[in-house]
From TrEMBL:
Species of provenance: Actinocatenispora thailandica
Source taxon at top rank: Bacteria
A Pfam family of this chain: DHDPS
Protein name per its UniProtKB record: Dihydrodipicolinate synthase family protein
A molecular-function term among this protein's GO annotations: 4-hydroxy-tetrahydrodipicolinate synthase activity
Amino acid sequence: MAGFGQDTSGDREGERVGDELADTTPRLTEAIRGRLIAAPVTPMDESAHIAPADLDRYAAAIAGAVDGVCVWAHTARGLELTDTQRDAVLAAFRAATDGPLLAAVGPPAGTGDDFASQCAATARLAERAAAGGADALMVYPVSSLRAPQTRAERTIRLHAEVAAAAGLPVTGFLLYPEAGGVSYPPALLTELAARPEVFGVKLATLYDAVACQDAIAAIHAGGALAITGEDRMFGPSLLWGADAALVGVAAAVAELSARLVHAWFAGETAAFVVAARRLDRFAAAVFRDPMDGYVQRMLWAAEREGIIPAASAHDPHGVRPDPAERAAVAAAYRDAVGG
């Protein structure tokens, strides 16, 4: 494989990766279609220390309620963790789940802004995920993809080279710009979705219903799964054609999240509507300004649920919402689960 900072033949790379993943990608696609993948938080104290027992207990609780897990995502502050912490989180969830285990990969905090550095750092993290037992990867959008004149070429290269480095299939990640995401236009989404190493694209447009619907159509045109990550448009995004879910809201209230997804794909309309209404009210209390505070709010919800102790319900890496919001999150939790 050519170096990350060098020009490569995209077609040749695609053929090689396609040969290696020809069996793995279709199996993974069918394992995720119609299923719920949770993006869990990382239980930490105020000093960013992870208590192994708390992590293991939380991993067992979440994995037991959902179909699969994506570790190291933004909800987990994956790019802020140390390598040792990432390894511990992956190991805990690998031990807890028999379902698909994805790892979100990107350039860890402190990586340079140039494409070669970001691509190489993402590939190194992908290799670490593969060594730890991950089944697939979700590729963070990186800042060096934003330039319009190189966006398409670099986006395709990033996903192809990361998949090749790890030997694992990948999903893209359409993330709203305010969270550091990159706007992948429909034509690029279709091209990305048609790649042999790509089994899907996760959608997290947050509030842009039109962009979400256009993206679902574009991904389907490329032949991949449209995977909703729309915590504030969860039910609607399934109505619009999403094939599966990978959501941070399932870092707590995982059973309700699973009920929503499973009811939809089973054609149980009445159960779907009930679950969607409850989950939407909960998400409205959690995914709100300051938006980055949702991680702390989800930790509070997991604490209220009894799956994380208070000592490990801290987000030392992000925005800290007003502590007074804790009561609102607890009330939303009670409303959602009825207890």
